[in-house]
Amino acid sequence: MSLRKCMGMLLLVAVLAGCGAQYPADVSQVLVEAGQNRAELEKVLNRFSESGDSLKLKAAYYLIGNMSGHCYATYRLADTAGQEIPFNVLDFATFDDLTKGFDSLERVHGTLEFEKGERVNDIEVITADFLVGQIDCAFRAWREKPWAQKYSFDDFCSYILPYRGSNEPLEDWRTPLWDKYAYVPGQMRDSTDPLEAVGIINTDVRSWFTFDSRFYYHPTDQGLSEMQSGGLGRCEDMTNASIYCMRANGLPITSDYTPYWADCGNNHAWNAVVTPDGKAIPFMGAEADPGNYGLFHKAAKIYRKMFGKSPGNLAFQTHKQDSVPRWLAGKSYRDVTAEYFDVCDVTVRLDRAVPDSVDIAYLCVFNTGEWKPIHWGRIDHDSVTFTDMGPDIVYLPALYLNEEVVPWGVPFILGETDCSILALAPQTDTETGVLVDVT
C-alpha cells in the first residue's frame, strides 16, 4: 500500500471516529431515544455549533442530555376497573362542597383514585424553534439583567435555563414574562440584589394567582396560560408560576418539596432563590417573599426538583429489586435537607432476617394513616444507615415487597439534639396481657 493511500485511510478512520464522538454520551443516547424527533434536536445542536457561542452549545447539551424522562403528564379520576370518572374541581363552590361531591361519587362508583393518563415525552415532541428560543431568551436574561450577572454558568444551567418546572404542558413563558417585568430594575434600590427583584416580581404574581384548596383534586400541573386564565392552583402551581416569572428574568429559582409531612397528612412544595454564594433562601411563590417564609409542619426530608440528573439517587444505584417506591424512583431530584436544618445520619439494626432478593431498606414517616417511605439506604448485613434525616420525628424502618411497604423493625423517635434513637416498643399489662402503651 502506498503512503498516500495509507494516509488517506487513516484520515477516513479519524473522520469516522470524530463523527461517532460528535456529541457527549448522554446527548447521543437521547438522540437515539428521540426516534423520529431526532432531527429537531440535531437542528438545535447544529445551530449553536455553527453560531460560535460555545456556552450556548453547552447549554443545548445540558438540556438535551437531561431531557429523557421529562414530560407533560395528565391525571384522570378512575374507579378500580380503570373506568374514567368525569370530575372538575371548578364545578364546586368550596372545598367542603368538593369533598362532599367526591364522597358522593365514591358511593356510586366505589373507591376512586387519580391515575396517570396521557404522557407526552419532551424528546418526542419538542421542536427546534421552541428549544432555540428558550436558550436564546435564557441567555439574554442571564447576560442583561443586573442581578443575574453574578451567577456562574453552572447556576445558570441548574436554575435559570430549564424550560419547565414540573410536568406541565410545554409553553413559551419566557417571551411574555420578559416583557411584563421589564420595569423591575427601575423600581429597585439596588438593581444587583436578586432578593429585592424576587420580592417585586412576587408582589405582582400575588395580584393574579393564588392558592385554592380545591386544586388538591387537580393533580395535573398547569401551564402559564391556564394559570393566567384561572388565577387559581395548588402549591405546585404556585411554585411554577414564580419559576416562570423569575427565570424568564434571570433569577435562579428552585422548587423544593417534602413528599410527606412527618407530623400531619399531605405534602408541600415551595420556592427558594439561590444567592450568588450558593445559599438557598426559601419563599412561597404568589404568597410570601424571601425572609418572610418558614415551613409550617415538620419535614423529615426536603428535596429539590432539578432538570439535570442526580447520580446519587436510588434510580442510578445497582440494587436487586426492580420496583422502588414512587417518590424515590426519580432521576431528577436532589436531597437538600441539610440546607434547611441540622440533620442526623441514622443507623438502624433490622430485627428480622432480610430476604436474599432485597438489599435496600426504607425509612418511613406516618402520613394520612399510612407509613410512607421518605428515604432509602443500602442494607449491610443486618443494619442500614439513612443519611441527613430530620430530628424529633417518629420513623419506621421498612422493606418494599410486592409493591407494598412492609415494616421491618419497630418505630422510633429520632432525638432532636443528640440524634439518639428511642424505640417505641409495645408493652402489655403483666396481669391482664392487654396492650397498655406504645412507648
Features:
8-stranded antiparallel sheet; alpha+beta; 5-stranded antiparallel sheet; 12 helices; 439 residues; disordered C terminus; disordered N terminus; globular
Describe this protein's structure:
The protein has 439 residues and is an alpha+beta fold. It contains twelve helices and 19 strands. The strands form five sheets. Strands 10, 11, 12, 13, 14, 15, 16 and 17 form an eight-stranded antiparallel sheet that branches. Residues 1-21 and 432-439 have low confidence and may be disordered. It has helices spanning 3-20, 25-33, 38-51, 54-65, 95-109, 122-125, 128-144, 153-159, 174-180, 194-208, 224-230, 235-247; strands spanning 71-79, 112-121, 210-211, 232-233, 253-258, 268-274, 280-283, 303-305, 333-335, 344-349, 360-367, 370-380, 383-389, 393-401, 404-407, 412-414, 421-423, 427-428, 435-437. Helix 3 (38-51) packs parallel to helix 7 (128-144) and helix 10 (194-208) packs across helix 12. The protein starts with a helix and ends with a strand. The longest helix has 18 residues, at 3-20. Strand 3, helix 11 (224-230) and strand 4 form a beta-alpha-beta unit.
* Strand segment count: 19
Oligomeric status of the shown chains? Answer: single chain
The helix content is 25-40%
For the terminal residues, how far apart are their CA atoms?
86 Å
Weakly predicted, low-confidence segments: 1-21, 432-439
Average pLDDT taken over every residue: 93
Strand content: 15-25%
Biggest sheet character = 8 strands, antiparallel
Based on Cα principal axes, name the global outline: globular
Total of DSSP H or I helical runs spanning 4+ residues:
12
